[in-house]
Design goal:
Blueprint lengths: L5 E8 L4 H16 L2 E8 L27 E5 H4 L2 H13 L4 E4 L7 E5 L1 H16 L4 E5 L5 H16 L9 E3 L4 H12 L7 E4 L2 H13 L9 E3 L16 E3 L2 H18 L4 E4 L2 E3 L13 H12 L2 H16 L4 H6 L9 E6 L22 E6 L26 H10 L6 E8 L2 E8 L6 H39 L9 H13 L7 E9 L2 H8 L1 H18 L5 E4 L4 E7 L4 H19 L7 E9 L6 H25 L1
Parallel strand pairs: 1-2, 1-3, 2-15, 3-4, 4-5, 5-11, 6-7, 6-8, 8-9
Antiparallel strand pairs: 10-12, 13-14, 13-16, 15-16, 17-19, 17-20, 18-19
Helix pairs in contact: 1-8, 4-5, 6-7, 9-13, 10-13, 15-16, 16-17
């Protein structure tokens, strides 16, 4: 609970699927009636059962604010990862929260399960017993998968009870998906005698099987009966429409909410089961049925009517974000009709420092410092000239971190679910995006996938481009500057000078060239080592660069020679006096067994199209050597 608001977290995947969307809408209605706000933490792609596959998107389950929740609901069959589900359950248990598993089973949780075995058995019995099939075949899922294996056993039990001996040749594996199912079907089509019925473990494979049979001129159901399982909406758009069993998602939402309320009230654990309903259709020879045909057509029309335009807008948005020159410019690119009802929150540290956010090794205790990048309800606050990061440290890394807590608390009063996706790129989490749609349109849920993807690419791309600019600046510094002194090297100096000389606005100004040469470098190197010689060069370079005006061009001309080019009026004698004074101060405090001194000469000229820097440097060099010779002569006399 946060203040007076109560929250329930739903952990799921692909909220844009009609079945999940229907579950969410119904569940939210039930929760809202009891004073709860639904927080949805959703993946946008399937992880399946590959527990060790890298899927940074699962970060969305790491930012669940358990400390403010009243309960957790997990749609296990949608997440499909026992490792993720067990992690969520453990954290919920640590916070003493009730956990309800919708469509799955875990110990010490209330579980609502579809009885897939009984539901699939209804389909198999209907095909075998009602249509008199004698050569049945099953298109199963993955080898070794628990759902696939249980459906094979149901198939075996029913056909043997009807006097049909089972053997391994009756089983193909389509891995619950279209492409592997096509491979399995090609092998089946090569047989001399085809089955008279292909009973598929899910609807996707049933649709694929029916299409491939028709491509070969084989009649469905005239030559081969086809059935599916799961009740996907796509079965109503297939010809023939597929016989299947429907898992009533609305009933699942009702039972889930009822069990949740009982758990919160009593603290007890409950287990319920729901048997999928048989839906016969024309793929087995039964009369054709249409379930809510106009509603389904409207959903698909609504989802795809503006698909091309939406993709173009999002591509422009993400490209503009990546090419931005500052965080404020990048943030200002997010505003669009596609990002309405959206809050974008990211790790502030990703936009700071000179390191690579995506490749640096994060310490185990690293906590992302969340900051709101964008809030569509207040777009004026995120314009290029007004955006700034909030100075709030994140005390914990979840969606109710301080920078966004009050805002989400405010939105929770509107009665619609808050949907969270993770922001990530290159297997590194960046933050999260919150969608607070003010309606139940499935098109919004569907569009959230592409918006999240565009934000991930846009923000992540900007961070990468920022780091590339830092590297380029560092390379430029190395290329144009002397490594020992930090002054311009000859190439850097010449490029900077050329730019100034080409600017005719400087014509007519006085140009002063001051040449400085370290005294006794060979003596220092020979007697105290080259490291001390380098130290002496650095001290002269610093004395020169800190004595000349800020707009001067200063370069290390040779091993121990430094010169500056000063545009406009200056007093070279004062500058040389400052150089000598700084070196005297250094010698008094350095404790070195040698003194650092320099000889300086200068020349002046007027900048015009005839100005020759080489001539000016030679003149200053001559003056410098006169000073140096004078010093040597005076030392000899002494």
């Amino acid at each position: 609970m946060l203040n007076d608001r109560r929250f329930v977290a739903l952990c799921t995947s692909r909220v844009y699927e009609p079945a999940v969307h229907g579950f969410v809408i119904r569940l939210n209605e039930r929760l809202k009636a009891q004073g709860y706000t639904l927080l949805i933490f959703s993946l946008n792609s399937d992880i399946y059962w590959e527990e060790d596959r890298v899927a940074t998107e699962r970060y969305v389950f790491d930012i669940i604010p358990y400390r403010f929740l009243d309960a957790v609901i997990i749609m296990d069959e949608k997440i499909k990862s026992h490792k993720i589900a067990n992690k969520i359950i453990k954290k919920a248990n640590d916070h003493r929260l009730p956990v309800v598993i919708a469509d799955g089973y875990y110990d010490n949780c209330s579980c609502i399960r579809f009885d897939y075995e009984k539901g699939f058995e209804q389909v198999v019995r209907h095909v075998i017993e009602e249509h008199g099939v004698k050569r049945p075949h099953i298109m199963a899922g993955h080898v070794g998968n628990e759902f696939s294996d249980s459906r094979i056993e149901v198939f075996r039990k029913v056909i043997e009870q009807n006097g049909i001996p089972f053997d391994a040749s009756m089983v193909s594996h389509g891995d619950f998906w279209a492409d592997p199912c096509r491979i399995a079907m090609r092998e089946l089509l090569e047989r001399e005698v085809l089955p008279d019925a292909i009973i598929c473990a899910n609807d996707i494979m049933a649709i694929t099987v029916a299409e491939m049979l028709k491509e070969e001129g084989i009649q469905v159901p005239g030559d081969v009966i086809v059935s599916g399982f799961d009740g996907y909406d796509e079965i109503y758009f297939n010809t023939p429409k597929i016989t299947t069993a429907i898992c009533d998602i609305i009933k699942l939402a009702d039972v889930t909410s009822d069990v949740l309320f009982k758990m919160i009230s009593t603290g007890s654990i409950y287990n319920e089961s729901i048997v999928p309903s048989l839906l016969t259709n024309s793929s087995c020879g039964c009369p054709e049925q249409e379930e809510f045909p106009s509603t389904l057509r409207n959903r698909f029309r609504e989802s795809f009517a503006r698909l091309n335009d939406d993709n173009r807008v999002l591509q422009i948005m993400s490209t503009s974000m990546q090419m931005s020159n500052s965080v404020s410019q990048m943030v200002s690119c997010i505003e669009s009709y596609k990002t309405v009802d959206t809050i974008v929150v990211a790790d502030k540290r990703a936009f700071e420092g000179d390191s690579n956010y995506f490749t640096d090794i994060m310490p185990p205790d690293y906590t992302r410092n969340f900051s709101v990048l964008y809030d569509s309800d207040y777009p004026g606050s995120y314009k290029e000239d007004s955006f700034s990061f909030q100075d709030i440290d994140t005390e914990t890394e979840d969606v109710f971190a301080l920078p966004v807590r009050d805002r989400l608390r405010e939105l929770s009063e509107e009665g619609f679910p808050l949907i969270f996706n993770s922001l990530d790129l290159m297997n590194r989490p960046l933050g999260f995006v919150c969608y607070h749609f003010r309606n139940d349109l499935i098109s919004n849920y569907t569009n959230s996938v592409s918006v999240t993807n565009a934000l991930c690419i846009g923000i992540g791309g900007y961070i990468n481009m920022r780091y590339q600019r830092i590297l380029l600046r560092q390379v430029d510094e190395m290329y144009r500057h002397d490594a020992l002194t930090g002054l311009y090297n000859r190439i850097g100096f010449q490029n900077a000078l050329d730019r100034l000389i080409k600017d005719t606005d400087h014509y007519g100004q006085r140009v002063t060239v001051i040449m400085s040469d370290l005294d006794g470098l060979k003596f220092i190197n020979d007697n105290f080592g080259h490291a001390e010689g380098d130290n002496a060069i650095q001290k002269v370079a610093h004395a020169v660069s800190s004595s000349v005006p800020e707009y001067s061009l200063t370069t290390r001309f040779g091993g121990d020679e430094v010169f500056s080019v000063i545009f406009d009026k200056c007093n070279p004698e004062d500058i040389i006096g400052s150089i000598n004074s700084k070196l005297e101060e250094y010698n008094e405090t350095s404790g070195k067994p040698y003194t650092v001194t320099t000889s300086c000469g200068y020349t002046t000229a007027i900048l015009d199209e005839k100005f020759d820097i080489s001539h000016a440097v030679k003149e200053a060099d001559k003056q410098m050597y006169i000073i140096k010779s004078t010093k040597k002569n005076s030392q000899s006399v002494l």
